[in-house]
Design brief:
The structure holds 2 protein chains of 2 kinds. Chain A is about 50% helix and about 15% strand. Chain A has a 4-stranded mixed β-sheet with strand order 1-4-5-8, covered by helices on one side. Chain A has a 4-stranded antiparallel β-sheet with strand order 2-3-7-6, with no helix packed on it. Chain A is built from 11 helices and 10 strands. Chain B contains 11 helices and 8 strands. Chain B is α+β, with helices and mostly antiparallel strands. The N and C termini of chain B lie far apart (about 45 Å). In chain B, a hairpin with an 8-residue loop joins β6 and β7. Classes of the chains: A alpha+beta, B alpha+beta. At the A-B interface, β10, α8, α9 and α11 of A face α7, α8, α9 and α11 of B. Bound molecules: flavin-adenine dinucleotide. The site of flavin-adenine dinucleotide has 19 residues of chain B, from β1, β3 and α11.
Chain lengths: ~375, ~375
């Protein structure tokens, strides 16, 4: 398969680009922030995503979804990133769907996702760094399990209808699909640097039925790694959009801002930095597409996914830093959008493991 | 994947298994292991010639060139499969050649039928070794400022002047050369000519590099007679050919940032144990290197489909060469004092430090990194002058 978008994928990108830019541009995110919105995203917009079929992008056709792949999901996420649109798309339509696909949970949860009513959150991380350590316990109790422990950095955790929870069971890790509203569950949303909300979750003896288990008991690593691969690839695509949006804004600014009587874009020092940034972003773009294509082909994509997440972290971080710097003083103002890109990039870079985490994973896989 | 392609892959694999000598599946130990062919070839191992001849006879040194010009006549998909199968067995490049990577594509686009039939098959089989006569002492980055003159003398030109940095000029059989046919126009006064390095009036003088090698030369032309039939494209239109060829040169050089076929020596060095800081540097480098590998695949796919931006080779060249320099800095750091030995047998005659020093030219030759960044800024990002 050639490493560029097919005509159909490019069409989907154009559709997504127009749709997101029209309905959820940066001003949408700014308005939610200014209103101190407690949900963190627009439910109306989530419905509109559903009406366009986008919430079912990864849901198989047999389950009434679009039956598309990670390349297509990435195409949509890139536009979400470019517009800094707050959306549960990544956690719900990509990561959660991937974990539930082909399990008994599909029938229960997919209709709500397709309708734009259900939002899923990923209760995976327990520490300030994404590191795979799971201390939350699930003990057998009656016909089901009792969950005890805490999770953090859970986007949409305070409003989600569905929580995908990783917990330790006797012999390993088990993944649970936990409906919201259970007794003993609490969610404390915190606003993050980018104005998005992520919750600290507590599970104090939360009881779940045995059929909440995704896949098999003690065998949660398989669905969890599907979820993580999808989440990481998706987050890479969203980061690509954030970095690309920042880079575009910056190059445009270089073409309109005058100092010393000339456009600042005529200064070679800035031209070279812009050209270097362009190169980093293009390389990151190739890495993301590679990872998504490998995932879609069913081949082992683990290392390619790590490359994508690490590379987009590096490239986008550069994009937002250069973005603020080349905007000069205006780049430091809240009124101007470029700073929002910096903040969003920082959050996405941290999510699902940052560049260092994934570089380390590659080193370990290569045996050094 | 269609059945035809599956069959092609199976046949290719079988042929390579039968025809690629075991010696040619080992990593190269230095520049001496490279195969260049030509009228006066040198081989560090006899299998180099065998491998070049076998691949050349099949047209697989230039798999996607048409068969009538000595190529393999393969489709883009087949070419990709061949490349993958070669990589799978860690096969060495059967033939290093400026003819393949630079002149060939330019001749295919701009050459006459006679020129194509005369030169391309010899390039494909490694019979004629070419060198590139572009740079001059006062025309490096400002290449169009070149002064070597070609005066009209009826059916031929008389060429006078000096080139510099001509890679392997002392071992090359023919030169593709930029000459000035009109002094009144800078870019519009350049012509592109081909001539035999054995012509009367051609002389070369090696330049010793910091790596201790001297594959580069100053090249002098003293009243050299060049038939007009050897001019590629119209008189004074050589700049078009030159630029087209440079795109291909940059494409070729950009492949350098990629790990060597068959086990990345940097990763192997890291496995032997390095301090945590160097380990982290190597791991982060590996991220970029693998991402660039995806970029190379994408670039080739886009090129084949006619989708690549015409200035994209500048980005590939810039990124690939800067990566390669970083790779060799890290290899030196991982190698420690072993990587400093300059002549010992254990160090394969100082392969590591010589390669490290050689890579410093990657971001100079074929247009410097700064020039590539200028091109990206102007032609891709459309930044103002
Ligand atoms: C190992 C090696 C092999 C080579 N092989 C060949 C060959 O086979 N055939 C051939 O014809 N040539 C060859 N070259 C020559 C090569 O193409 C030139 O060296 C190169 O184009 C740079 O020119 P220069 O050396 O004159 O440097 P200069 O042009 O003098 O550049 C000096 C410095 O100034 C910078 N600079 C110049 N102009 C600008 C600008 N506009 N903006 C910003 N920075 C600028 C450069 O980037 C560089 O850092 C080779 C060179 C090397 C080192």
């Amino acid at each position: 398969m050639p490493l560029y978008l097919t005509d159909e994928q490019a069409m989907l990108r154009d559709t997504a680009r127009d749709f997101v830019a029209e309905h959820a541009p940066v001003s949408h995110m700014r308005a939610l922030r200014d209103a101190n919105d407690a949900t963190g995203f627009s439910r109306d917009l989530w419905k509109q995503f559903a009406e366009m079929g986008l919430t079912g992008i990864l849901i198989p056709e047999a389950d009434n979804g679009l039956g598309l792949g990670h390349v297509e999901a990435g195409v949509v996420l890139e536009e979400i990133g470019r517009n800094l649109s707050p959306s549960p798309f990544l956690s719900t339509a990509v990561a959660a769907v991937e974990a539930l696909k082909g399990t008994a949970h599909a029938a229960r949860w997919f209709p709500g996702i397709l309708a734009g009513e259900t939002v899923a959150a990923l209760a995976i991380d327990e520490h300030a760094k994404h590191d795979g350590r799971v201390e939350m316990r699930a003990e057998r109790s009656g016909n089901g399990f009792k969950l005890n422990g805490a999770k953090r950095f859970v986007a949409h955790g305070h409003v989600a209808n569905l929580l995908i929870v990783a917990a330790r069971t006797g012999e390993g890790t088990t993944l649970f699909a936990v409906p919201n509203g259970a007794k003993g569950f609490s969610a404390a949303p915190e606003r993050l640097a980018d104005a998005s909300l992520a919750a600290h979750l507590r599970f104090d003896g939360v009881e779940v039925d045995a059929d909440a288990v995704i896949g098999d008991v003690d065998a949660g690593d398989a669905p969890l790694s599907r979820l993580l691969a999808a989440g990481r690839t998706g987050a890479s695509a969203e980061l690509l959009g954030v970095g690309g949006g920042a880079a575009d804004m910056t190059v445009n600014y270089l073409k309109e801002r005058k100092q010393f009587g000339v456009l600042i874009g005529s200064f070679q020092a800035l031209q070279h930095r812009a050209a270097h940034l362009y190169s980093e972003m293009e390389v990151a773009r190739a890495a993301v597409l590679k990872a998504a294509q490998l995932l879609d082909s069913g081949q082992d994509a683990g290392e390619a996914v790590s490359v994508a997440k690490a590379m987009t972290g590096l490239a986008t971080t550069l994009a937002v830093q250069e973005g603020v710097q080349m905007h000069g003083g205006i780049g430091m103002t809240d009124e101007y959008d470029i700073g929002f890109y910096m903040k969003r990039a920082r959050v996405l870079a941290e999510m699902f493991g940052d560049s260092n985490f994934h570089a380390n994973a590659l080193a370990e896989a290569a045996g050094y | 994947m269609t059945d035809d392609l599956e069959t092609f892959r199976a046949e290719t694999r079988a042929w390579l298994e039968a025809n690629c000598p075991a010696e040619m599946r080992k990593p190269m130990r230095g520049e001496k292991d490279a195969t260049w062919g030509g009228r006066n070839p040198t081989y560090a191992h006899p299998d180099q010639k065998l491998w070049m001849d076998r691949m050349g006879a099949r047209g697989w040194t230039v798999p996607d060139w048409p068969k009538e010009y000595g190529g393999g006549g393969l489709s883009p998909a087949e070419t990709k499969i061949l490349r993958e199968e070669l990589k799978r067995i860690n096969a060495r490049n059967p033939l290093n050649s400026f003819g393949i990577s630079m002149l060939g594509p330019a001749l295919l686009k701009y050459g006459t039928e006679e020129q194509k039939l005369e030169h391309l098959p010899k390039i494909a089989r490694g019979e004629i070794r070419w060198c590139q006569g572009y740079s001059e002492p006062n025309a490096g980055s400002d290449l169009a400022g070149l002064a070597t003159s070609a005066d009209d003398a009826g059916d031929h030109y008389i060429v006078n002047g000096q080139k510099v940095w001509t890679s392997y000029a002392d071992q090359a059989d023919w030169i593709f050369c930029l000459v000035r046919t009109d002094k009144t126009s800078k870019q519009g006064g350049i012509s592109f000519v081909l001539f035999d390095m054995a012509s009367e009036g051609v002389s070369t003088k090696p330049i010793l590099l910091i790596s201790g090698y001297s594959p580069f030369c100053e090249t002098f032309f003293d009243n050299v007679k060049v038939p007009k039939a050897n001019r590629v494209h119209d008189e004074n239109k050589g700049w078009d050919v030159a630029k087209y060829l440079l795109g291909h040169e940059r494409e070729m050089i950009s492949g350098m940032g990629l790990g060597a076929a068959g086990g990345d020596p940097l990763i192997e060095a890291a496995r032997k144990g390095v301090d945590p800081i160097l380990r982290a540097q190597i791991a982060l480098f590996d991220v970029r290197s693998r991402a660039f590998s995806a970029m190379s695949e994408r670039f080739i796919d886009e090129l084949k489909a006619g989708r690549a931006h015409p200035a994209q080779p500048s980005m590939m060249k810039y990124y690939g060469t800067e990566l390669n320099k970083t790779r060799h800095e890290l290899m030196m750091a991982a190698g420690g004092s072993d990587a400093l030995e300059w002549e010992s047998d254990a160090s394969s005659h100082g392969a590591a430090p010589r390669a490290w020093l050689r890579t410093k030219a990657n971001s100079i030759e074929g247009g410097t990194s700064e020039i590539q960044l200028n091109i990206i800024a102007k032609r891709i990002l459309d930044l103002p002058s």
